[in-house]
Design brief:
Elements lengths: L2 E5 L5 E5 L4 H10 L6 E5 L5 H12 L3 E5 L6 E5 L7 E2 L1 H4 L9 H8 L1 E5 L12 H9 L3 E5 L2 E5 L7 E3 L5 H11 L5 E5 L5 H12 L3 E3 L5 E5 L7 E4 L4 H13 L3 E5 L7 H9 L3 E5 L2 E5 L4 E2 L3 E2 L11 H8 L2 E8 L8 H8 L3 E5 L2 E6 L7 E3 L3 H11 L5 E5 L2 H4 L5 H6 L4 E5 L10
Parallel strand pairs: 2-15, 3-14, 6-7, 10-11, 18-20, 19-20, 23-24
Antiparallel strand pairs: 1-24, 1-25, 3-5, 4-5, 7-9, 8-9, 11-13, 12-13, 15-17, 16-17, 20-22, 21-22
Helix pairs in contact: 1-2, 1-7, 4-6, 5-6, 6-7, 8-10, 8-12, 10-12, 11-12
The chain binds ligand EPZ.
Length: 429
């Protein structure tokens, strides 16, 4: 298992470039299933989940090239032949976002077999709303032996009202609707920038979509979609993570090639904590002398404070003077980082979905365990201010969604090194 060794105490100084958004790239790669033509996606992040998605598409018969040379960070996908429209459990169990192929597969081929994703560290992660929407569009869905099978002659436009706001649910059904017969109206949709990015790609392929980014999306189905070349949005969560890194280390850091408009709630909260943030085009400069004020957060769907920034914010809150209350409204078990932070000296009490953080707590190095993607980021942030050398185990979790994070952080003064080879061990479930 690869590990990180991080020595705390260095303020981050300089600039870090943000990679493309994993959570945009994954639905956009799945959208290539909707056409026989070649699809080229640029600004693809070099992270483990993208490699998993490549394997998934290839296992179904697609041709996928993935290049990360200086000029590239690009993938070319051709789903001319989908010889085996099955998302196998061996792959789905390592990445539940594999369920994003369900909608495009049934829209393109009339048949999809997708292993049920199962839960993960942060919650049960059901896909009942994806299924409900596809059934409303005329899909006949059965479940057996851990697989979903969806069949239809051709999906029909429908009126869909999501019981809960779901990001990949909105994306999955959007991809189903673009080839359906007739009009689909989806209400209570997710408004995340990743939904808008996917919709922009689909429109460039010939889809007819109105309202992406709002809670009501209208789709007029078409018979066929053509190929496209699409550039993936910058990763707003990676950018937010680096803003917290600059703040927690008392540094002066420019986070570049990001989209500040996607980070409004995070920027506002950091400013409330006394962090200085200056937006300069597609960069945000973060400065702090280290004296941070406490502030409460309650995670909400976009444009509220993102659940994917909750763990990172909690690390910062341990260094703020006063009490911060963190309420996690989206997932039922997204406090896996709390115990690990406590082992480093943080003072955090959890009661259900509410964590109360009392700061400022001096953190000391410890051997800690990564449990999921954003919890891992939280531990990296804490380790950068802890006294001594912290060992983080199972860092393959962080490699799922952060491109070479140790190299980016080292380039601005962090003392972080990786033990073991990034590709040595297979990701456990
Ligand atoms: C997406 O997950 C992201 N993943 C997650 O990012 C992110 O945390 C989440 O949205 C919320 O913003 C990708 O985009 C690949 P949801 P998703 O469906 O779509 C419940 C990361 O760290 N729900 O919006 O799976 C669900 O249990 C990852 O990059 C149902 O009940 O999340 C949750 O409580 C982690 N039934 C809530 O809705 C359904 O059919 C929101 O989940 C679907 C969801």
């Amino acid at each position: 298992m690869e590990k990180f060794v991080i020595r705390g105490g260095n303020p981050l100084l300089g600039s870090i470039r943000v990679s493309g958004a994993k959570n945009s790239a994954l639905p956009c790669m799945a959208a290539a299933i909707l056409t026989e033509d070649e699809v080229i996606l640029e600004n693809i992040p070099q992270v483990r989940d993208i490699e998993t998605e490549r394997k998934l598409l290839v296992s179904m018969g697609a041709e996928v090239e993935l290049g990360y040379g200086r000029a590239q960070h690009r993938t070319s996908i051709s789903c001319r032949v989908l010889s085996d429209p099955v998302a196998k459990y061996e792959i789905v169990k390592t990445m539940r976002a594999s369920s994003l192929v369900l909608g495009p597969l049934i829209a393109r081929t009339g048949l999809a077999r997708v292993a049920m994703p199962g839960g993960c560290a942060i919650g049960g992660r059901p896909i009942d709303l994806h299924i409900k929407g596809l059934e409303a569009m005329g899909a006949n869905i059965t479940q057996e032996h851990g697989y979903l099978e969806a069949r239809t002659e051709r999906l029909k436009g429908a009126h869909i009202l999501f019981d809960k706001i779901t990001v990949t649910g909105t994306e999955d059904l959007l991809m189903a609707a673009v080839l359906a017969d007739g009009e689909t109206v989806m209400e209570n949709c997710a408004r995340e920038p990743e939904v808008t990015d996917l919709a922009a790609m689909l429109v460039s392929m010939g889809a007819k979509i109105e309202g992406a980014g709002s809670s009501v999306i209208r789709v007029h189905g078409v018979d066929k979609l053509h190929g496209t070349r699409h550039r993936i949005n910058p990763d707003r969560i990676e950018a937010g993570t680096f803003l917290v890194a600059g703040a927690i280390t008392g540094g002066d850091l420019r986070v570049t090639q990001c989209n500040p408009a996607h980070l409004s709630s995070v920027v506002a909260k950091l400013q409330e904590c006394g962090v200085r943030l200056d937006i300069e085009g597609d960069s945000i400069r973060v400065r702090s002398e280290g004296n941070l004020r406490s502030a409460d957060i309650s995670t909400e769907e976009y444009p509220g404070f993102p659940t994917d920034m909750q763990a990172q914010y909690m690390a910062l809150a341990t260094q703020a003077d006063g009490t911060s209350v963190v309420v996690e409204n989206i997932f039922e078990n997204r406090f896996m980082h709390v115990q690990e932070l406590a082992r480093m000296g943080a003072n955090i009490k959890v009661d259900g979905r509410t964590a109360t953080i009392r700061g400022k707590s001096p953190l000391s190095s410890a051997a800690v365990m990564c449990s999921d993607l954003r919890a891992s980021a939280s531990l990296v942030l804490a380790a950068m201010v802890a006294e001594g050398e912290t060992i983080l185990d199972r860092v393959y979790h962080i490699d799922r969604g952060y491109e070479r994070i140790e190299e980016k952080l080292r380039s601005v003064g962090a003392e972080v090194r990786r033990l073991g080879n990034i590709f040595a061990s297979k990701p456990a479930v």
